[in-house]
Every structure is written in structure tokens, then in C-alpha cells.
Description:
The protein is 43% helix and 19% strand.
Amino acid sequence: MIVLGIETSCDDTGVALYETQRGLLAHALHSQTQVHAEYGGVIPELASRDHLRKMLPLIKTVLAGTQLKISDIDGIAYTKGPGLMGALLVGSAFAKTFGLLWEVPVVGVHHLEGHLLAPMLEKNPPSFPFIALLVSGGHTMLISVKGLGQYKILGETLDDAAGEAFDKVGKLLGLPYPGGALLSEMAKRGESKRFHFPRPMTDRPGLDFSFSGLKTFALNTFKMTEHDDQGKADIARAFEDAVVDTLLIKCKRAIIQTKINRLVVAGGVGANQPLREALKNMSEKMGVELYFPRLEFCTDNGAMIAYAGHERLMAGEREEGLDLDPIARWGLGA
Ligand code: KG4
Ligand code: ZN
């Protein structure tokens, strides 16, 4: 079965083709970072318009790369939510229209399920069950994954997501949006011992997170520090150390509590190198199997949606009807 995957939940237009036997055949991504950069955040209306403009050219690109024809496509998977309503509507309108025209089944995929299953696209995929640390711009969660659709949230952020905190502190330090990766670059030049930021909610039991206090801590430190390159780099370093350490402590706790010794890291912040290093060290010490999607599949992409949709279509799931009913706010497992 060949599945066309479509991702339009936020500011990346992603398209991919996944096949049962050969796996991922092709994928293409258009990032809207440039479109939103000058506003310091994603502007929903601009996001929708850009998805609309880029969808057909991207589909043409992936088809051309594989020599496949439209008639070879057996099913369509699109991101049904959560995300920006206008952006989701673009993807669902394309998906349902293609389904009708090409007479193939359509399935709506939960964006977070896409992220959780992204490591399945790699050569050495994890088997079930595993713990997933999902760290993106919109989410910070620890989830126990027993199988397709069997997700239990062990803990999540009570306020800001880790990526959101990276972006807000990045903005404070004068970096363009989204500042996560640039902040991490800046932190390399920072002195780790100059400032010590708290590790929020690690002194009490449980697996929830909170990152908004760290953002305030960064702001207060910033006010007391000279705003030269070194001062900024030192703050970036202290902030990144605190986020990485906090995520590490909670992952360790989740592994011990659930006795599941397989950890999958997904979402944009999963691209963070110090986090990867820290989790690698911990996993080696604890005998835990650790899985990362490749860097380009950590952030939003069409491949993860094609994969998740393929699994669901193979299991017989179908979205009947032509209603456009994306779900902007949608809990995982609900
Ligand atoms: O998964 P994603 O593409 O979007 C959401 O669905 O939210 O994640 C984007 C987030 C942004 O907040 C971005 O700043 C952050 O991931 N990010 C990073 C790094 N690369 C991306 N944060 C820290 N270090 C990085 N290297
Ligand atoms: Zn995402």
C-alpha cells in the first residue's frame, strides 16, 4: 500500500510517500520560518495561505522523485489536529478532495502520534512498549506507548512547553524566532559555572514539568547582567543546562517507575545536541535502549504522518464522509 502523508498543523508544509514493503519512498518539506520570522511568532492566517500555495508543488516534487503516478497512491493520511485551525483545514481539504477524486481511503492522524512514531522510520526501529519523551514547541510530555493508539500520558508540562521556553529565552537574548537551535549554538560559548538556574519540579515526585519559571529566571538574570556576547552566552548556557537536566531527571524517573527500558525522543527539541548527549550517557549507564528520529524527522514533517496513517489504514481505519472537521485542540489518547 502506498500512502500519501500531508502535514499542515503549524508552520511546516510536509508531504511524503510511504510504502508497506519499501518504507519511506520520498518526502518534501517547506518551512515557513522566513514567513513568520519578522513577527516573532507564527501568524495563523499567513500559515494557512502558505500551506495552500505549497501543497501541490510539494506533491509534484515527491511524485517526481519516485517516478510514481497519482494512480499509484492507495491511501491518504493527513494531520487532523492538534494545531492551528486554518492550517489544519488546508491539509484536510486537500486530503478529502484527493480521496474523493482518486477514490482512495483517507485517514486523519493525531500530530503527536506522528511525532511518537517517527523513530519507526529509521533502520533500527524500537519495538513496543517504549517511553516517549515528546519535546516540541507546543508540547512537553512523557508517554508510555504500548502499541499503535495505546498511549498513556505519564506527565506533561503545566505551563510552557520546553521548545516554547527555548524560543522565549531566545527572544530575550535577541535571537529570531524560533530561537531554540540558535540559543543552543550560543550556549556553546557560555560558561557553565557562572549562573545556576533551578531544575523545576524535580524536588517533588511525579513526572509533570513546568518551564515558565525558568523563563522568568532567565529574564531576572538578564536584567542583572551586562548584555554583551559573553553575558548572553552564559545565560543561554545556564538555561539550556537546566532544561536538559530537568528532562533527563524526569526520563530517568519514568523509566524506573514503569520498568520500561526503551526510550524514544521526539519533537523539535529532540534535535538539541546536549540533550541527546545527556540521554545517551544515562541510557548507557542504565542499560536503556535509546532511539531518536533523524534530525529532520524530529521537527514537523510529512513522513511521520504518512507512516502513522499507513499503520492506521492497514489496520482498516477509514474516515468516511466529506466533512472538514479538524480538531485544533485534541488530547492524545482521547
Ligand atoms: O516539533 P516542532 O517542529 O514543532 C512543534 O510541533 O511544536 O518543534 C519546534 C521547536 C521550536 O520551539 C524550536 O525552537 C525547538 O523545537 N528546537 C530546538 C532545537 N531545534 C529546534 N530547541 C532546542 N535546541 C535545538 N537544537
Ligand atoms: Zn510538531
